[in-house]
Amino acid sequence: MPQAAGSGDVSIVLVTYNRERFVGRTIECILAQTYGNFELLICDDCSTDGTQSVCEGYARRDARIRYVRNPSNLGMPGNLNNGIRLAQHELLANLHDGDIYDATLIEKWRSALLRFPTAGFVFNQYAFLSADETSGAVGPAFPEFVRGHDFLEGIVFPLRDVEVPVWGTVMGRRSVYLKMGLFDPVYSFWSDIDMWMKIAETHDVAHVPEALISLPSRAVMPHLFSEKMLTAHRVTFSIHWGARVRHYRGRTVARIESLAYMSFWFVYIRGARLGKRIWTRVF
After folding, report:
1. Domains of the chain
2. Burial class (CB in 10 A: 0-12, 13-18, 19+), 83
């Protein structure tokens, strides 16, 4: 039996844009959660396909769902920020249209944040599905609880590529998001990287070592934006640079070492990608 709108102690913000073919499956995954005491905010970033019709159909059938359509396209960070502002509960799950969620996801995320009150957010392993969705490589697992300092210095900063092991789907604390100033639109689709590192400066990090989220192949569900890899690398480099400057403030030697290490890998990776592009076009 559907619960009343706004009941429970968890808000789920599902951001969507032009996913008519995929968003229904994602909504079904959410409605099938073993922990059902939530409100679901579907934030539609002014889709131009049939996404609105699909979402409104689900909203009519389940009182936990609130469909919100932006009057203009805000971009992913703006769309997510709007959902965070509208959310009614402290425990807040950020979910993306098209992803496939295990039925225990919300239950296990919620349990982790209740068990670790100093954690600013919780994430999990991911399965990267093949084009036929019959198999998928599973990403690395981490401890169930990591001090924010150790998350940055032991997990994020040593990475050779300027990435983080956390994708855009987590359960965080609404108050922490508000304290951080929400997701920065300057960083576009990579604003979540900036957010996770900012949170880890003042909060710990929780992890569920299970592949609770399956990510469809881009052959099945393409990106809806033109991702130029060198541009993406420059943006993530800027985010990481700022994070290291903040983190190592007052530790001059450590800061210099970290920024030098990062600069080397930026030049190396950028050069390798540019070389591959030239090689492909010429030969």
Report:
1. 10-222 (3.90.550.10)
2. buried
pTM here is: 0.86
In three-state form (DSSP H/G/I as H, E/B as E, the rest C), the secondary structure along 189-231 is: HHHHHHHHHHHHHHCEEEEEEEEEEEECCCCCCCCCCCCCHHH
The pLDDT confidence band at residue 227, using thresholds 50, 70 and 90, is: low
Structure token digits, residue 219: 């052959």
Alpha helix locations (H) across 19-173? Answer: 23-31, 51-61, 75-86, 105-115, 148-150
| Residues forming a β-bridge with 100 | 214
279: tokens are 């090689």
CB contact at 8 A, 140 and 167: no
SS3 of residue 268 by DSSP: helix
Does residue 180 contact residue 195 with C-beta atoms inside 8 Å? yes
Per residue in 46-99, pLDDT (tens digit) is 999 999 999 999 999 999 999 999 999 999 999 999 999 999 999 999 999 989
